[in-house]
Amino acid sequence: MPTFGAGIWHFATYKDRYATDGYGPPVGLLEQIDRAGAVGELSVVDLNWPFVGFDGTLDDVKAALAKNDLKAIAITPEIYTRDFVKGSFTNPDPAVRKRAIALMHDATEVALELGCSYVKLWPGQDGWDYPFQVNYHDIWQLALDGLTELCSAHPEINYVIEYKPREPRVKIVFPSVARTLLGIERVGLPNLGILLDFGHSLYGQETPADAAQLAIDHGRLFAIDVNDNMRGWDDDMVVGSVHLVETFEFFHTLRRNDWDGVWQLDQFPFREDSVQAAKQAIRFLKAIHRALDVLDDDALAQAQAAHDALAAQRLVQNALLTSMAGLENA
Amino acid sequence: MPTFGAGIWHFATYKDRYATDGYGPPVGLLEQIDRAGAVGELSVVDLNWPFVGFDGTLDDVKAALAKNDLKAIAITPEIYTRDFVKGSFTNPDPAVRKRAIALMHDATEVALELGCSYVKLWPGQDGWDYPFQVNYHDIWQLALDGLTELCSAHPEINYVIEYKPREPRVKIVFPSVARTLLGIERVGLPNLGILLDFGHSLYGQETPADAAQLAIDHGRLFAIDVNDNMRGWDDDMVVGSVHLVETFEFFHTLRRNDWDGVWQLDQFPFREDSVQAAKQAIRFLKAIHRALDVLDDDALAQAQAAHDALAAQRLVQNALLTSMAGLENA
Amino acid sequence: MPTFGAGIWHFATYKDRYATDGYGPPVGLLEQIDRAGAVGELSVVDLNWPFVGFDGTLDDVKAALAKNDLKAIAITPEIYTRDFVKGSFTNPDPAVRKRAIALMHDATEVALELGCSYVKLWPGQDGWDYPFQVNYHDIWQLALDGLTELCSAHPEINYVIEYKPREPRVKIVFPSVARTLLGIERVGLPNLGILLDFGHSLYGQETPADAAQLAIDHGRLFAIDVNDNMRGWDDDMVVGSVHLVETFEFFHTLRRNDWDGVWQLDQFPFREDSVQAAKQAIRFLKAIHRALDVLDDDALAQAQAAHDALAAQRLVQNALLTSMAGLENA
Amino acid sequence: MPTFGAGIWHFATYKDRYATDGYGPPVGLLEQIDRAGAVGELSVVDLNWPFVGFDGTLDDVKAALAKNDLKAIAITPEIYTRDFVKGSFTNPDPAVRKRAIALMHDATEVALELGCSYVKLWPGQDGWDYPFQVNYHDIWQLALDGLTELCSAHPEINYVIEYKPREPRVKIVFPSVARTLLGIERVGLPNLGILLDFGHSLYGQETPADAAQLAIDHGRLFAIDVNDNMRGWDDDMVVGSVHLVETFEFFHTLRRNDWDGVWQLDQFPFREDSVQAAKQAIRFLKAIHRALDVLDDDALAQAQAAHDALAAQRLVQNALLTSMAGLENA
């Protein structure tokens, strides 16, 4: 079985521009960690930083993680809150850019202190909304410069960019796997890679398995997240609720390449019980894992060599549509 | 088991604006019928009319159908070829409108002669491409007037509108289930209903099961087609290749309402063997049928009464992800 | 010149699921009204209710409006906050449905007290997220029952439904003009109509001018909102920033039908000065108004009668691409 | 004024999968050239090759071009017709791959003979339709190998890849500017660049001006095409019919970078007069050219340095919405 993980925000409650009073009462950081522990299947979590609304110490966090048999795999600095709504790396104000990078340096220290594998950069406010709003050459250069400054300062830890086509900005500077790889190659540092969020890839009109293969072929697939959506937006639904075949193909591509990282959840269960949502996601991922064991790899390779869609689909359905047998009550 | 059917064009070869020489050598009408027969699971077919490129008689067609144990369920008049590229019912030229309706009258005679259940109207060229190109009031009125004239002339047979958001026109006058029902209610005749194409509904941002329920609640769901796509275009892929859960939900809604029409294929296997594509589609539909038998309807109704997505998904996965067990070699 | 208006939220600051601390410091209700007044062009506003975070009286609100030469045109009850995240009319819990309708009754009282033209219903949480989550027949019936109960209780005032394809729910029960008209016809009351939001129509794959025409032809176009987006989401950008031609066509359709309601803004200037955003929108709308005066209606009608896209576009460009001449410094 | 050009197919008639008898009677190659000449504003054309259905000589073509004051700027080999429906470079059959590359070699000879600037490669059939159909690593490698073989054999001429997200394949191997640049950098030859089709970029969720800037910054923007669409498909509508602001921004980015290539049309006037469609496109492009002259570049640079969308939009509207003044009868 793979190692399972989740972003800690999976266990928070949410606001949006309409339900500004939140989809439920606030859940504090330690309670979020306890909920992650209550899933019973998670080994690692990704933690936002600063710990908003938390007045305890880092040791308190460590203790909460330990109590729940969890490790922090990553720190995600919050470079998308009020200070940074016009961008972090690419903010038009040099003073804000400086603050953003300082925040990322601090987040790196926390990540090192917690023994994390990487710092996750999600520049969701770095981009533009309107035609003619920015100079595209300049904003891209600022993004690369900021990454270079940050990553070269901390060769002892990895950084990942989680690309996303849009939201909250109408357009984000790192919208796709290929654009992100172009930027990473330009930066040219070994400790900068990609976190591929399955849902971002799906609604960005990519084929997630193809995006994973490309990142692997460039040696840059450092981490992955899964969830689901309706292909038009980052709905962050529970994995396995809509796009079963493409989820299966995504994990098949990872296995074919012997990629052995964490199978990590990035779901936003706005109206669902978050512990139950994680449990059900993992139940589905276990079925996928079984289907991978059952799939006839040789026959599939032969079908793919001929681009024979029907033969490939037949093998896939044989594996996937029997994958839950015996797991119904799991 | 349900009755299975297919549009006869499933067994043709295709052209598009690039491969103007076709995706394969032309396949004549009788050969198309033989291919439909070769699937071994089809009971009915929907025939385009006029029989383009066919110089035989209607009796020849009847004989070919009989030989293959097939019945014609419908006639689809070709109101979208060169004569009608600016519309059929709604063509700006009254003479062309007249020719279009004459063609539909003739198609009705053929349908009656063949004992069809309905005449299918697919007004794919009725619409607009550019902003400001048409007067929306006028074009809608022309569509309703044409339908009224046609359907009131033949109370002895049903007509169905196959709605579609777009292609070949950038916008089609009957783009969605609700718009089509509005028009049908305005026409107010009992013999005019809807053919709901699952793929059209899916890429039109509807929930196909919801669209089916609405049409049923209005007493207008006369026929259905299935296929699959990537939610952005009418790809007419083999059913079961992408959107398994929503296909399952679609058929679940039909069963819940005791809808017992034909399960009909509208696939375009551009680059695939058409007989094999139909066989594989039906293999999948049989798995869906089994899953419907297995699905815990009471528990699902309870989950739905509470809008409990997680409970519902769990039941669905239990049924769907075991549905192929034992059918692998079917 | 038309009467201009705006939703009062145009002058608030916003939160979303990432910038949970807001895109700026909170702006109180009275300050929002002052900002609306500062635009200098607005005559009416639409007010959310309850007045969240406001501890003054209704008289205070009246005074603030009067001071700024503003009238309340509508009240929008907040049926999409925490209590209602699983729906208002269609909530699975009958007690919540009751509370939602009670809130709408109360909002109606406030609207009457303020002399509003209508109460606006935006059931953004009424819908579903996941396949199989709801029974589509039941949820639609609940929506119609709730509307019937509400609207029949207050024949002295109008209600409008602001349809929207999605957000915050993945699917909303009133997603399109046609579906909403179907529901309104089923309810069958004269005081229930549509508020057509241009942006909702645009990203819902409608042609906004066609949607307006249909609502007018059913006698149900009670109000409109304008803004802009990238056709994939409700970006609520400043009107005139992207889709100039379709905005022009929308207003042309209103004029052709002698529709003389308020030209109302529903923009979310997340990162912009809200007063400036409104001013610039109105500057553009004035240019549109001039273009309508200049447009050669007879020639256009002739082009449309022939579905002649090129002739129509030529006339449109002549009017639109000269419309700002002399207004540059306005 | 810039040099204007067009793909010669602009002046053909079209088929699609429904109107298989064509949107009009066939138009022969020489007549297409005469129509291009009749526009009166075109200096160059891009020619498909082989000259399908043409039994004259290359000298006949040269004469027809000369007669119409036209030059061939490019040859587009038809690597997307029946032989190649499962791919050209990436066809699963090595013999077909060989034939495809042979065809491209031959096309190169024709291009050299005609004094063209480049050979255009549009691998529209190179990709996949179904999940699990291909091995993504292998298909990408085949694409790069084929390009390397071709381009290294002809250092005396340029090649351009016209990327496109989809159609006719559900997914194409070169779908975006960034993916194409990644491939080009991997190939590493100086004579391989990009033809950026504005419409492909637009419906591929890119910002076309940003895509152009990126290609320029990599030294690979060899050519451009313009047209328009509804952001969901490659509608190939007449430029200037929908997305005026983004078209303006696209050309502004080209000018800012002193890019001085041909302004080329890639329109498919299915139902319009092709000469008139080209004339009207060029009328609009001249208005854009005037707007570029009028646009206050310094003020815009200042607005962009601050990411000030409102200030930028204001300048843009001042230039764009006055640009047709005096050209109304052009």
UniProtKB/TrEMBL annotation, chains A, B, C, D:
Keyword Lipid biosynthesis (UniProt): no
Domain Xylose isomerase-like TIM barrel: 56-287
One Pfam family in the UniProt entry: AP_endonuc_2
UniProt GO molecular function: L-rhamnose isomerase activity; metal ion binding; xylose isomerase activity
InterPro entries according to UniProt: L-rhamnose_isomerase (IPR050337), Xyl_isomerase-like_sf (IPR036237), Xyl_isomerase-like_TIM-brl (IPR013022), Xylose_isomerase (IPR001998)
Metal-binding keyword on record: yes
GO terms, biological process: L-lyxose metabolic process; rhamnose catabolic process
Compartments reported by the entry: Cytoplasm
Alphabetical list of PANTHER family matching this protein: L-RHAMNOSE ISOMERASE
Protein name: Xylose isomerase
